[in-house]
Design brief:
204 residues, Peptide Deformylase, five-stranded antiparallel β-sheet, two-stranded antiparallel ribbon, 4 helices, 7 strands, 31% helix
């Protein structure tokens, strides 16, 4: 498993403190609808800078997770800063993740509301398993295995979906998808204004 429990952790992850805010792509943009490329070079300044930028961009947008294609980069990578249902905060990144879900007989599907930074202002119920494991690498090429339950499991599944070119809209019925896009059209201007205001407060 990645990481170890700590007694306290800063509200702004250290990576975010080094990063710059990037524009978040919006549903309908081509980069969100194609599978991302595997990362093949590790330990590079460019990869570290991308992760730092993604952490700050996620923080400014009040997100729990962010995939690289959500900042216009089609690489298999996501970052997260997400609580589980017990209130335990999980912070990290994973490169080239592979999702492992419980076997059908042992899994429990939970239908709960889900949002997406690339579908600003919209939330819809989406069924996800209540447990998920993701295996992959860190930015230096070291092996990682991350297990999540509850809301964090939802986050891991949501972000892995992005790397295959899917948003949660693809898991909705036509009627619910239309409803989500209507919500986005009504609210995205306010959401973008809130993100810009938070970025300005941070001087980013």
């Amino acid at each position: 498993m990645q990481g170890r429990p700590v007694d306290s952790y800063p509200a702004l992850a250290p990576e975010a403190g080094r990063g710059s805010v990037r524009r978040i792509t919006v549903a309908g943009e081509e980069v969100l609808s194609r599978p991302c490329r595997e990362v093949t070079e590790f330990g590079t300044p460019g990869l570290s800078a991308l992760i730092d930028d993604m952490f700050l961009t996620m923080h400014v947008a009040d997100g729990a997770g962010l995939a690289a294609n959500q900042v216009g980069v089609d690489l298999r990578l996501f970052v997260y800063d997400c609580p589980d249902d017990d209130g335990i905060r999980h912070v990290g990144h994973i490169v080239n993740p592979v999702l492992d879900l419980p076997a059908p007989g042992s899994r429990r599907l939970v239908d709960d509301f889900e949002g997406c930074l690339s579908v600003p202002g919209a939330t819809m119920p989406v069924p996800r398993t209540d447990r998920a494991v993701v295996s992959g690498l860190d930015k230096d090429g070291n092996a990682l295995r991350i297990e999540g339950t509850g809301y964090f499991a939802r986050c891991l599944q949501h972000e892995t979906d992005h790397l295959f070119g899917h948003t949660y809209l693809d898991r909705l019925s036509k009627r619910d998808r239309k409803d989500a896009l209507r919500q986005m059209a009504d609210r995205q201007e306010d959401v973008h204004a809130q993100r810009a205001a938070k970025a300005a407060l941070l001087g980013s």
